């Protein structure tokens, strides 16, 4: 029997180097603010935040695999669980609950219990349409793509937009078969 | 009370990605514009952080007191260590030296660069200056933070960094009071 994947990222989070979250939160806020000034269009800011997240995700997955001790997930349900309980915990120190599964088990919601990205944040009226936390959905999409899962990650509820929670919708589009960079006869 | 924490790699990857977005995507043809934007982001962060870290302190009596606060308390909050060395010419210039600046310790730069490289190969020279240039892009953010923090303490200044001793990860900040 395969070793059970850890169901909680507490131990990993306790062991990684940690820093004051204020620096993280304020830096992210300053980046979003500067992007709004430079790119002008809110839509474009959403897109760039997602792209930045994606670029981070494709690198962060290595650290996750190296430190979390998580082995291969048997299905997407387990993957979602690991993101919610181990991945988010290990990097952001928070967890999420996984809910609203569809019948074929390919899409679900992650409801964040806490969100360090948005401490001190209030959106002015001029920023309607901004998905402030779009970097996070990008990170998850990028990380999953590196472990052969093409996904679509979108925000369905956002407290900065007046909702009662932070809810991410995760949809598995395609499981990409692993390709090896070498041929048998080489 | 220990405040909220996140993993260090979150902050690191966010800053690295921000710098590379500005240098390679938004302003790839205009490094000086990219540098100004990155500095502006740092400035905003420094302004807000020093506001928070000085909330319960009495007003600083002079510039030196404020600089000492940056070297000790402010730096410790951010990097869990103090500035290693503070020098001043007593005419408004301060040099803050961090011998192991956390944001640069994992950056690899060709060590031959600082060892008096005598190679004539132009391609080698280009690679070196590129790696040095991209490393220097990462210094605009901390420079901005310090300028923002001091500005918030009522000390408008210019901050620049010198990393000519990079293998030892030295960060030298030269503050020129205006």
Automatic annotation (TrEMBL), chain A:
Domain of life: Eukaryota
Main location: endoplasmic reticulum
Coiled-coil regions, chain positions: none
Pfam families xref list: TRAPP
Record's subcellular location: Endoplasmic reticulum; Golgi apparatus, cis-Golgi network
One GO CC term, this protein: Golgi apparatus
UniProtKB keywords: Endoplasmic reticulum, ER-Golgi transport, Golgi apparatus, Transport
Family in the record: Belongs to the TRAPP small subunits family. BET3 subfamily.
Physiological role: May play a role in vesicular transport from endoplasmic reticulum to Golgi.
Protein name, entry field: Trafficking protein particle complex subunit
């Amino acid at each position: 029997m395969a070793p059970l994947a850890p169901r909680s990222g507490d131990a990993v989070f306790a062991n990684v180097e940690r820093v004051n979250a204020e620096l993280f939160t304020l830096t992210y806020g300053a980046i979003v603010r500067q992007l709004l000034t430079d790119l002008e269009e809110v839509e474009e800011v959403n897109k760039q935040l997602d792209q930045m997240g994606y670029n981070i995700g494709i690198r962060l997955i290595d650290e996750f695999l190296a430190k979390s001790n998580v082995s291969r997930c048997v299905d997407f349900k387990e993957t979602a669980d690991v993101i919610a309980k181990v991945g988010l915990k290990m990097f952001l120190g928070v967890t999420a609950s996984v809910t609203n599964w569809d019948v074929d088990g390919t899409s679900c919601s992650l409801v964040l219990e806490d969100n360090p990205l948005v401490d001190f944040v209030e959106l002015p009226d001029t920023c309607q349409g901004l998905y402030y936390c779009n970097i996070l959905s990008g990170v998850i999409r990028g990380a999953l793509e590196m472990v052969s899962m093409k996904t679509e990650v979108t925000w369905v509820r956002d407290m900065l937009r007046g909702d009662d929670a932070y809810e991410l919708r995760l949809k598995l589009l395609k499981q990409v078969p692993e390709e090896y960079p070498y041929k048998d006869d080489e | 009370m220990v405040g909220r924490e996140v993993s260090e790699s979150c902050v690191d990857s966010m800053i690295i990605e921000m710098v590379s977005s500005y240098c390679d995507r938004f302003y790839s043809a205009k490094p000086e514009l990219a540098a100004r934007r990155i500095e502006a982001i740092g400035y905003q962060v420094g302004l807000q952080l020093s506001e928070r870290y000085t909330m319960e302190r009495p007003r600083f009596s002079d510039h030196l007191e404020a600089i000492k606060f940056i070297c000790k308390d402010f730096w410790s909050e951010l990097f869990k260590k103090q500035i290693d060395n503070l020098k001043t010419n007593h005419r408004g210039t301060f040099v803050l030296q961090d011998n192991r600046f956390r944001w640069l310790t994992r950056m690899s730069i060709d060590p031959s660069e600082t060892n008096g490289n005598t190679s004539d190969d132009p391609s080698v020279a280009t690679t070196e200056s590129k790696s040095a240039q991209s490393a220097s892009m990462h210094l605009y953010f901390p420079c901005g933070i310090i300028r923002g923090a001091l500005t918030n303490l009522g000390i408008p200044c210019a901050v620049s960094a010198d990393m000519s001793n990079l293998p030892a990860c030295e960060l030298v900040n030269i503050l020129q009071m205006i």
